[in-house]
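Batch job 17 of 40 flagged for manual review because the log was empty.
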Amino acid sequence: MALAVSILAVSVAGALTAAPASAGLGAVLLLYKKGPVAIPNGSGAARLKFPMTAENTGAASAGVRIRHPRTQQLDISLKSPNGAVADLTRGDTRGENLGAHACPDGRDPAGVDFTRFSDNASEDIENGTAPYVGTFLPRQPLAPLGGALPEGRWTLIVRDTGGRAQGKLLCGLVQVPLSAG
């Protein structure tokens, strides 16, 4: 299944926070959405959708909080509004759960320790340990998901490739750096 959050100017089906950004970027949009969304066993996917409107963007990053007893069964990807998809992980984890702590209601994901994926990370997720709190390199670069006019829906997609263990996509976030102009 997936969680979807849309950024429509400043309104979001989830949460939108603009924060200061570094060198040449105007702000970072933080899109947060709480589930839970059941992850179907063996077929289908859980989805969190994040709609948005913005100008030019940099490389996105993403975070998930998932409850699942066998994370090695999970394939996670991020889909941009232009339809480009990048794999975050494809069964590269072992053990229970991704991320830690409860997902809060509202617009602020404070208190959640996400399993994050960023092109700027230095560690591969397969070198981490459950619950994989921290920032890891995605299986495929996220930079191609950014670019000009990323209006539309960003989607975190979680597929369970196994058939026995039941899981839930509890919450997720997408961070999109925006250029200054």
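Reviewer: the log was empty due to a logging misconfiguration, but the result itself is present. The domain at 2-166 is CATH 2.60.120 (Jelly Rolls). Unflagging and moving on to job 18.
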